[in-house]
Amino acid sequence: MDIDLSPDDLKFRAEVREFLSSSAYKPGADYGKWRDEWFAKAKAKGGWDVPKWPKEFGGPGWTPTQHYIWEQETAQATLPWDMPFGIGMLAPILMGYGSKEQQERFLPDIRARKVNWCQGYSEPGAGSDLASLKTKAVLSEDGKYYTVNGTKIWTTAAHMADWIFCLTRTQDTGVRQEGITFLLFPMKQPGIEVKPIITLGGAHSVNTVYITDVKVPVENRIGEEGKGWTYAKGLLQHERTGLAGISRSLVALEKLKEHAASVKRGNATLMDEPAFRAKVAALEVDLMALEFTELRSLAAAAKGGALGPESSIMKLKGTEIQQRIAKLTVEAGGIYAAGWGMPIGAKFARGGMASYLASRAYTIYGGASEVQKDVIAKNVLGIRSSQK
Amino acid sequence: MNFNYTDEQQLLSDSVERFVAENYDLEARKKIVDGEPGFSREHWRSMAELGWLALPFAEADGGFGGTQVETMILMESFGKGLVVEPYVASIVLGGGALRRGGSKALKEKLMPGVIDGSVQLAFAYAEEQARFDLEDVVTAAKADGDGFVINGAKSVVQNAATATHIVVSARTSGGQVDTNGITLFLVDAKADGIERYDYPTVDGLRASEVKFKNVRVGKDAVLGDVGKGFEILNAVANDGILALSAEAVGAMEVLYKDTVAYTQERQQFGHPLSDFQVLQHRMVEMFMEYEQCKSLLYRATMETANDSPTAQRTIHALKHLVGRAGIFVAENAVQLHGGMGMTEELRIGHYFKRIVVIDSVFGNTDHHLKKFAA
Asked: I need a labelling partner for A359 at 20 to 30 A (CA). Which of A57, A165, B60, B270 fits?
């Protein structure tokens, strides 16, 4: 056991720092052009545009330590705007279960950030109990296409998406996890209606998607009919690890401390008040531990090949920490907590409330915390429950 | 960065695990704890033969040349069996002070005995008024002729009754809470003027209140430099925190796993208890707190072994979390075992008591949160 970065790792870190500073956005430059160039330069570094993709699909094939370094360094830098749905969520499914033709057809556009994807999972009647989904896909008599009807909800960025990857029901066998089929289809077509949902923070990022008589060719089905649940489950593990947001929390925590230290209290600051200070300290301790929990799980994954159910710990603890930081930022704002975005009080306090409100979703989406605990109880603790 | 054990570390881990599995079921431990001197001399000899008593000492001193990582591996397994032999008192604490501060002559005289187990040490640092502050030292050592005379009292000194030598912190100059002016002495446990009140502690270990009344020691009893003992004292306390935290992590593993096993056997309302989601979720929280403690233990231990500048702060974080999470796990283990968790019959309660005592040694959870935030 050794915590030191090896000479190779230090060299890698220097290279990452060099890359991030030389490719950084310069104020006034054309954002879209910069974004395209950034991804092109990252690609030329040997797959840095898709850090988590495996080597055989053009990823960099980093060690866990290199991933850790990348996370740490990029958390402090401003990276171009990106969406996780294609790169981080659909791509692993395509690599694992898609046909060669599907991989060649979809992966290059995902990598080039040319096509935006959204995820059609939740439905009005299927939230935490995702397997009870009802969006129906019926195969045509000639076996050439499915006709899809149903409603998806909480679909992030559906209003910006070109394509959707969608769980549909092709059969009712009585076992809910069976008879689910994984389909891909374009969003910009007749029969698809996207309606915005405005959330507590005032933002529009999620939507309801109504699907009426949309025809999807069978070539757009991933894997076998009826096996979609198995494929989606694998994807959820990827999604959950990504949601822990440890590096971002490390940066956010430092900001929180700065902000609290800027709030004057007599001759001292809010950071000197014992009750507030203790909350920040306890939070930092949990985050320090989680950093190493992530490293341990990455190291285990590197040895064993796949990400295990440990990723559920990451999501549970990671989102809870993000929420605590958001909450403490609102507390630090004091009386100005009431404003959200108005030009009153300290500058940091203005965005605090909206972030805090939005953060309440973190323990709900990607599998609610209570669902994560069910998963850990079953898969890690090995508890076989006779009730469900 | 690497989380794998080396081949040697793996061998060590395997052999300690085997030792604990073969020698430390609840019955065997009870026999040892209830008898005299409160630990097994036979086990102590085995530990010497297996080389464990040599682990943290330099090869030049006849040791194995290990770091805090090896001690962690050993202590985590000890925690799974609640081993009561005075490893922490004699090797980590007393031995830690001797290896850091002992003169060449003193080390040549005592180290072979420490390593073969014939010399046992105790570490007398705590005082009643000091609570958890290492630097709060009233016990005084006055220069007298070519030596010193020590007067004062130390509390909850583990292994004092069987130790051949006691390491004691005393003030040679400065005010009550100055870090400067503290000196460490290695005193013969049979020296004139030492009075002990021996007692068993709630976790099955033994400790003593030790009074020093005009205890005379020579200059050669000084560990390190006169007045400069705090640095050694603090380093030894840090090693103690790491060792006890590793023990606590081992104990937490047993607590959560026993609870998972028990709730799957115990039937109520026509179901195993583990069918109830409220209990499942509690056990998941116990498991996560255990994993979080283990992560921070790794981090603090490796940072200390590598002399990282952040090590001290991470040690505060660790002791805070081990207190907070350890007690959460222990209390819930008892709760989920119901009435059976309250009995001496199951091992749960014994692990619970050890975890609670560990929180009270070298600063509790609040003390270290304050230090961490300082």
From this structure: A165
